[in-house]
Design brief:
The complex is a heterodimer of chains A (317) and B (290). With 317 residues, chain A is mainly alpha-helical. Chain A has helices at 2-21, 27-49, 63-66, 73-80, 82-114, 119-130, 137-148, 153-162, 174-202, 206-214, 219-242, 251-257, 263-266, 269-279, 283-312. Chain A starts with a helix and ends in a 5-residue tail after the last helix. Chain B is mostly helical. Chain B folds into two domains: 7-57, no CATH class; 63-287, MetI-like (MetI-like fold). Chain B is built from 15 helices and no strands. Chain B has helices at residues 6-37, 41-45, 59-66, 68-99, 109-121, 126-135, 143-146, 153-164, 168-176, 181-192, 194-210, 213-218, 227-236, 245-248, 253-287. The longest helix of chain B is centred in the C-terminal third of the chain and has 35 residues, at 253-287. Chain B is globular and about 75 Å long. Chain B starts with 5 loop residues before the first helix and ends with a helix. The chains are: A mainly alpha (317), B mainly alpha (290). Chains A and B meet through helix 2, helix 5, helix 6, helix 7 and helix 9 of A and helix 1, helix 4, helix 5, helix 6 and helix 8 of B.
Amino acid sequence: MEETTLRNANLKAVRKSDKRKGYKIPWTLHLMVLPAVLLVFVFSYLPMSGIVMAFQDYKASLGITGSPWVGLKHFHYMFENDYFVKIIGNTLLFACSKVVLNLIIPFTFALLLNEVRHMGYKRSIQTLVYLPHFLSWVILSGILIDLLSQTGIVNQFLTYVFDLKKPIFFLGDGTWFRLTIIFSDVWKEFGFNTIIFLAALAGINPSLYEAAEVDGAGRFKQTMYITIPSLVPILIVVATLALGNVLNANFDQVFNLYSPMIYQQGDIIDTFVYREGLLSGQFSFATAVSLFKSMISLILIVISYRLAYKIAGYRIF
Amino acid sequence: MYHKTLPYRIFSVFNYALLGVISIVCLLPLFHLLMVSLSSTAPANAGLVSFWPVGFTFEAYAKTFDNVNFLTSLGVSLKRTILGTALALMVNALAAYALSKDTRVFRARNIYLWYFVVTMLFTGGLIPSYILILKLGLLNNLLALILPGLVAVYNIILLLNFFRTVPKELEEAVFMDGAGHFRSFFSIYLPISLPAIATIALFTMVGHWNAYFDGLIYMKVAEKLPLASFMQTVIVADNMTGFDVSVVVNKSQRTIKAAQIFIGALPILIVYPFLQRFFVKGVVIGAVKE
């Protein structure tokens, strides 16, 4: 009797050590991801299945399972549409100008800020220029609409300085609207975009500068031959990652600033999808347009991440 | 040595001045708006207010707080911000903890990670998401503003990377005492990662406060509109008429609109100093990794 219990105990011990060597399913860990998994399933994966609407003539009464299939009808219509070509052009124009300016300006600003030796002054400037990033486009548009109106303070100032005959209609004239979109985005984001360059600047090995100093290089030469080359890798990473955004012209900004008068010069893919889909009820056509956009963006994102990894060894996780 | 040379000193003076001017210009629009909101109606409409209030008064603020719609929207915004942030933190931090484990401990880790990352790369888009909310019967329900964006994959990755820097010995000690993953999460990882969690909490709060579009499309009655959506309909949508605001819209509204915009921006301005302390770190954790 005693012997068997001893043997059982031994067996148990052996089994236990076996299990330890092997893999035990970590149920607690699965349980911990479960809420996120479920939420993502419902709110991200279910809508993905709704994309089939792009190949149907979706009617709310029939639902996704009952609506008739129409193949590529909406895509044909899309590419034959002159207006669609126009909004692609607008989207690319806005997105590309923003990408370029939001690289060059923050980069230059970071270099200049790096020359400020007074820490308190430096920090105050950072505090001021980062702030617009955190305000929403609703707030900023409210401000811009007031500021840029024909009797607004900007027109008052311009009339006073340049002696304008007529105030500039910033939000109602196509060209001025485009400039407003591009530069108001720079206003909101350039400060925040300097952060990544400032972080890279802080990481430059000071002994490089000491060596340059010994060799008699002035600050300008140090900047040209040490600072800028050290920032090139991060500049390349930011630039390549921005590639995924060339079809994102910023819905929130355009939506809150545009008006029917300047749709020709100001409408972008996302605002078009919103109006066609939710305001006009063209669910299937709007889905087709947004599917086209997501497919192109997906390809660009994958390419840009591959490039960033190949060129600079960048990975997100 | 270079900073003692004359050319560098001249450059420095210009540099300090230039940066100072740029940063002040950045904030002038907001400051101008504040001054308009503190002025009397007549001088504000005549365009006499620039950077100092003319006929100083709190009238615009008093009128704003008399507006029932404004107050209910404020309430909706507060509710969604508090509830949304609390839930998001719980769900994202738990997921990040589990995913921070090695594949040796948690084999399914990479599968889960890809499951989440796919949603960063590809989305169903606006129309299917709208139809989903409609079918779930969540129109006019606060949950429609909270649940769809609850899982923030970027935040999960940020936290996961942070959790990985926590020394393994700490959790091994707890496991030795017979505790499970929940204990290890709550008594070790959470307290240690408080700065990272605070950063994410602040960003989530700002995101909720600023979100307007979901409220605009999912909330069909005025009492359910969050403040940002309310402001969008009141202040910005006037622009949609296509005429210049100053010509068409009732001018007595200008100071009140300015007051509303400023109140809408105020919470952000209040948390901003705290945000700033954290976000540089947060952005750097996410962006420049070894």
